[in-house]
Amino acid sequence: MNKVQKTAYELIQADARFLYTLTDISKNAQNISSNYICMSLPYIGLFTEGAEQWCKKVGLNSPCFNPTEKVFYTQLRQGHKLFEKSYKDYATLLFKRFTESENYFYNIRSLREKIFGYYNVGTDLCNGEFCGNTILCSMYTPIKLLGNEGVGPWIRDMSIVAGKLSAYLGCKEFPIYRYNDNIIVKYKDYHFYRNSPLKMNDDFGFLLFSILCSINYAIEFIENYFIDEIPQKFKYAYLQYYYLCDFIKEVNTQKNTDFYIDDCLFDRKFRNCLAHYGLGQYIRETEIISDDILKGLTNKAFGKDYLTTKAELYEILRSLTKQIEQIILE
């Protein structure tokens, strides 16, 4: 492999290491009870589909998809760009899954529970910040979850190839990413809209809440739960940011709101590098910075080092989440 390919390989290895760390968290962490793995499914799809394709392209003898796995991971990776959808299409999918959840939990409750209250949405909190919900998890998953008794074994079988790819890429040759098990990551159920944390207690409020959860998964959960500076802290946040730049403008048009998101970091070629490991058509060997978290990609795209660019990205996203929180949360 040439230097650019080796650099791409190292970034792929970093994602394999992240996946390996998730398995360690699921087995050994004591203070986490949330949908953190379901919320990471789009990024697991990005890694698995991207790594499988990249390894084949450069001629490595790596594990390959069977036809069913190929369809699954191609669909799974699409979850990272839900905000590429039009406002109408996003809202339609969101409330289709919300209605499925409401109907499922209503139908399994007793008459008393139906009258006095039951839960229809689970939420995740990290340091008190909402960073996930079960409706998003349903949107991320290309198979029905509720009431599907066979979903666990099926997803387990689909996950085997991701594990094999991670092992092939040497995930066990590195220590897991350190995580802070003293942080409380918890799960809280609500009944939207009878008993919810929202003051904008309607469909638009829930849509904004889901935007908030999508952003906070990266800038609150990934940022704070993982101790070291790892590529995923930037990558996951940037991919949300990239699609939100246009989506927020459409929200404003459709709902007569005035949310602001600075699009100064919007860069299609840079996004493609993060989503497809496509460094070969973007960066030259002389531009690679080997000891940089993202190997010089932010320097190439924005003329700024990784930490400076990340701080700017997080400031933009936190500005947006504050705008949303002021409108929807109690």
**Spatial order of strands in the largest sheet:** 2-1-3
**What's the end-to-end separation, in Å?**
54 Å
| Largest sheet geometry | 3 strands, antiparallel
Question: Gyration radius, to the nearest Å?
Answer: 20 Å
What is this structure, in a nutshell?
The protein is mainly alpha-helical.
Describe the protein's architecture and organization.
The structure is a single chain. The protein has 330 residues and is mainly alpha-helical. The protein has one domain (3-328). 59% of the residues lie in helices and 5% in strands. It has 13 helices and 3 strands; from the N terminus they run ααααααββααβααααα. It has helices at 3-28, 36-39, 41-57, 67-77, 87-107, 111-116, 134-140, 151-168, 203-225, 231-255, 268-276, 297-302, 306-328; strands spanning 121-126, 129-133, 185-190. Strands 2-1-3 form a 3-stranded antiparallel sheet. The chain is globular and about 65 Å long. The protein starts with a helix and ends with a helix. The model has no long low-confidence stretch (mean pLDDT 93).
